[in-house]
Task: structure prediction
Amino acid sequence: MSRFITDPRFDGIKPFEKKIWLSSPTMHGDEQHWVDNAIETNWVSTVGANINEVEKQVASYIGVRYAVALSCGTAALHLATKLAGEKLYGQARPNRGTLQGHRVFCSDMTFDASINPVAYEDGEAIFIDTEPDTWNMSPEALEKAFALYPDVRLIIAAHLYGTPGKMEEIKRIADAHGALIVEDAAESLGAKYKLNGTWVETGTLGNYNCISFNGNKIITGSAGGMFLTDSEEDANKVRKWSTQSREAAPWYQHEEIGYNYRMSNIIAGVIRGQLPYLNGHIAQKKAIYERYKAGFADLPVQMNPFDPEKSQPNFWLSCMIIDADAMAPMVRGDQDYLYTTEPGKSSPHEILDALAAFNAEGRPIWKPMHMQPIYRTHAFITTEGNGRGRTNAYISGSGADVGADIFRRGLCLPSDNKMTPEQQDIIIDIIHRCFR
Ligand SMILES: Cc1ncc(COP(=O)(O)O)c(C=O)c1O
Result:
């Protein structure tokens, strides 16, 4: 990595004294107040005023009737998926998941926390390829998937990097097939989407909706997540499951499997302090995205795309994708990579290494789930149908795989909202020099 420091292409650039992070927590002071308040009032537990308050505030911001505060977004996704499974296929025995023997259509290019709950519930994830317009689930591939697996009744759709997916189309397809949607809005809190002519928040677009307050998200509690719904019954069920599924009895009585998934009142204090700053963080992230976009205007790269007519992203992470003909050779193994440099070209790993050499953090795009060793045997559906086994040793050409292509050519840029414009200009300069 130190070779970048001595590489003449980078002459005059000095490493940042303090690391520029991909996306780190931004505290404002109010967080300390509410954490102290929890301790002073001795509500150091999974009950307390901070929890009640953040549930109320988030439900009101998003425009849902109920928000259930949980330990993390993954817990929210698990209980949302379990709820969907129970609704579709009935209550499962204690040692079985609600999705046993059933397939679920899942976003492919996402964090595995989106879709692991299918496995927690003993179901089988079928991965749906990505579309190039928003980098989310392709409605066209989803249609193909229903043609191949008409019995499927559940879809898990994520909004990547804060950009809403094509939910109008996805909802229309789901309705046509009587399928339910689990919406993973972990990365997109505060992003807006125009649904049938009306602007709504992500987190309202599925039958079961989830958000995250993980340390790198647009606002954070250090951890935490929420299940969002208009259904009182669903909210009550998730609250019950998340607190070990106690029945109404004087002792610990259980008729259902329970989980210890409730949010802590201390964590809720951090979130309570962060909530007033959500819109401010979005504005900062948007400015970062726009500064990159302008800074890269003369490079053979594009920013992560969105349709301004249909969506207002929260710009959680700024990403870029290198034009196909400006990609320098790069190969990836399962755990390592190799690349060469060529004038006028670069590659995600060259850029990520250059950024790291100068003390800035980027990240590869989420590696699509169909490429993950753990899910190698699961079906993958593209706009052309079955996406597995599409190449032929004897006939040239290969099947479409949009996710694999974005993963190969794309990367996440330092998107920390504490990064100054001057620091961002240096990052833009470093990336320019990668193409020399
Ligand atoms: C798309 C996506 N889904 C789910 C999660 C899981 O959220 P958490 O880390 O709060 O469990 C994350 C982030 O961590 C995410 O980015």
The pocket of pyridoxal-5'-phosphate is lined by residues 72-74, 77, 110-111, 113-114, 158, 184, 186-187, 212, 214, 225 (CB under 6 Å).
